[in-house]
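User:
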Amino acid sequence: MAEHEENQQTETIQPGPASPDSGLAAAALALARNRRGAKPDDRLDAFLEKQGQLTDAQRQLVGLQMEHLHEERALHHRHLALKYFGDRLRIGLLLLAIAFGLVVAVGLVSMVWQAHEDHGLVVEAFSVPPDLAQRGLTGQVVGKQVLDKLSEMQVRTESIRAASSYSNNWGDDLKVEIPETGVSLGELSRYLRDRLGHETRISGEVFRTPAGLTITARAGEGAAKSFSGADIDIDGLVQQAAEAVYARTQPYRYSQYLLASGRVSESTAVLQGLTHNPDPRERAWAHRGLGADDLLLNGDAAADAREQRTALRESPAFASPLFDLSVAEFVQGHDQAATRAAESFLAAGRARRLDIAPERMDGIDAIARFYRALIQGDKAEAIRQTPQLLKLLATPGGKFPLSDVAYASALGHDPSSFRLVARLLDAHDPHVSLASGVLALNAGDAAAVSILAQLHDSPPRPGPDFNDPFLPRTATCWLAIAKARFGDLAGARALIETTPTECYLCVRARGIVAAAGGDRREAERWFAEAIRQGPDLPQAFVDRGSAYLAWGDAEGASADARTANKLSPHYADALKLWGDALARLNRWSDARAKYDAALGYAPAWSLLRQARDAAARHVT
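Assistant: Predicted structure:
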């Protein structure tokens, strides 16, 4: 059956005339038959043989066709290559156009952004009389002179205030504008700054009057101010015009410039005017400046504190008044309030950085840390701030009473640090005498009485550094303590009665004097008052504990020492008192451990080392 079907299929093949592709067809049929395994077919074989017998002409035609196909293939490849190159070129040009467009767009956006953020100062060329221009005093020259005066005033302005905190801050972007003609990028930039920016533009003119010359200057759209004088006074007239511009555009800076120039009353008047500024931030800075002047110029720490609190009410997020408040409270003897203000200032991270100039930040922080450590009894930490404080003093306008480092050295029982700092100070500086007397007192040296008495009886020295009440009040307290310890109870009582009762050291001294005189009830009353005024401070607990120990109450002394140590772990006096109390209880090993801990914070304290050696002898 299969054979019959195969024969039918072969019978349907109708051989036709040979064609160039006939050989291929015949070969395909032969291969197909072989794959099927069919029996030989004479007619098919004859057809296949005939198709395989190509003439020379047919072979030549086949060759030409193949050559033509190869040429077409090559041409096609070249066409594809050219098309590929063209496509890449078009894509490249398109990308280049896009990149150029992006550059232009970014440039325009950058110009717009810079224009929007522009707070610089531009001084336009002044209008001047022809005769002045012929002498070389052209409008551009006058504008440049005004700009130079403004730059000089800005350099002489000493302030901790950060430039970014000014609502109208030029920074260092001060320039004279030269007029341009035609259309240019400069004109486009000026147009954008005019429309979008916050530039301060200064313009003016110089004209002749019967009296000589008059120079007029105006800032922005504000009213102009005019100043007249002779031709020879042109430099002074330019100075007056520049000051008028500075006062109008940078009033707080102008007040500080006046202060640095010794024009105190003018500075105060500017600040008082600023207290009515519509901007609460500017009002806050004005009160801050008035308070600082109250302390530095008049020695009025109470007025300073009031102004700083007013500044904080005007702008609660304002950090700078916290720093000034801590100093004002310390000067008044309000140690607890001073340390809390210092801690609040140091904790006011971002606000602190916004308020204070970056170049002053480290120094101001060091001052705050110094007073906080001094008040809390951590004298070693206070003295560690000395290198940064010296860097601050080396900066223009940097201020810090280095004598307070000498005082901290004395309280910390550190003679070497005291001598090092004292060499940097005036030998006749009364603050050096105060520190020297305290150092002698803490070493048990009776010379402390004469040193402190000489300081107490000396007339006050002139100058802003000696106007504040800290020095006379502190000297009185320490002299009263020294007199009480070395037997002059009447003199001690007479002195301490002259001190205020709203003063931490003063009420501590009252308790010490009363204890030395054997009046336990009075002593405990004053110690309790001192603890009320400074509940987070360790000194009053050490004072009361020392009195307890003198009265034979070693347990009470130990309890107060433990409390003081908890409040200020690095306070060597608390650790020594604790060791003394433990020694009185014959707990010599524990006492030696406390003395060793205290020596870690006051290694040069001779009385402490003697107590430690005595405890060690009992242990062995």
